[in-house]
Amino acid sequence: MTVVLDKGDLLKIFDEAPLAPGPVPTDADGEVPLEIGLLNNMPDSALAATERQYVRLFEAAGSGRLVRLHFFSLPTVTRSAQSKARLDAVYHEIAKLKQTKLDGLIVTGAEPKTELLQQEPYWPELSEIIDWAKDNTTSTIWSCLAAHAAVLYLDGIARRRLQVKCSGVFASTKATDDALTDGLRWPLRIFHSRLNDLAESDLVASNYRVLTRAPGAGVDIFVKRYKSLFVFFQGHPEYDPLSLRGEYLRDVGRFLSGAQETYPAAPAGYFDPETSAALDELHLRALRKPNPAMVGECRAILERSTVTIDRRGAATTIFRNWLNYLAVNKVGRG
After folding, report:
1. CB contact set of 110 (below 8 Å; sequence gap of 6+)
2. pTM of the model
3. Domains, the chain, ranges and CATH?
4. Residue numbers annotated as active site
């Protein structure tokens, strides 16, 4: 598969082993590219990793297709000066999204800043994107917080705060047959990382169709059809194997520095037994007498850990099926 970035130097996307641009097929070669937009709302610490994850995922899922990937950003998401420079070099302003004829759009989650999603500074812009995507894409994927925001805006379905963060690798099972899940081996092993949840009963009552669910994590993938097929992920099939490790270290650091009140639970089903035992011991000491220096101990434990989770097969199949759907139903056909 060829993945083409429509703006920016590939070296800005890949710090190591950058993609080679290569010759770009044109319509004259008999290949019309799938135009995919990525509205990346992830926090600064995950901005570049999210770019790499999706490009690598499209490479693996493409089955020889040409994909042109367009990066977009919301100006109301708070960014550091360094990240703003990256966005200026590689991303388009959100105004251009509506001017771009996209076949598919992916909208990532964001780190919440308020209790209510309607109070987030980006809510008005995101609401406009939801309305636009219904009629102007073949399909749109809404990931994690973006999924929660979309169902709230579309059907007034409010997410529920969990007592303990849902973090880990969960065994997801099939709820119903669908082309998006064809060819998958069950159960899937899908990453989840969120503080809130959507009730399956609320989704079904508003005519959402649940495709997969996982004990301990609830609804995983669900869909609803407008003119565009809206696909919702509560989990993160795109995550790299070490993504949860980085998030856990971040949250431990926040507790030790006083930035958050609760010490994070280690991701479920993720670490080897030796690592889990060491983390539990550190957890108990940190609760008795927290010290910011302990984050170094946590980092050292995690660097010695063994993470053997391989969920790229499931993610590749899901996204290959999605690209197939876009190719068959491409905007302007029929």
Report:
1. 41, 42, 43, 77, 120, 122, 145, 146
2. 0.91
3. 2-237+309-328 (3.40.50.880), 243-304 (no CATH)
4. 144, 236, 238
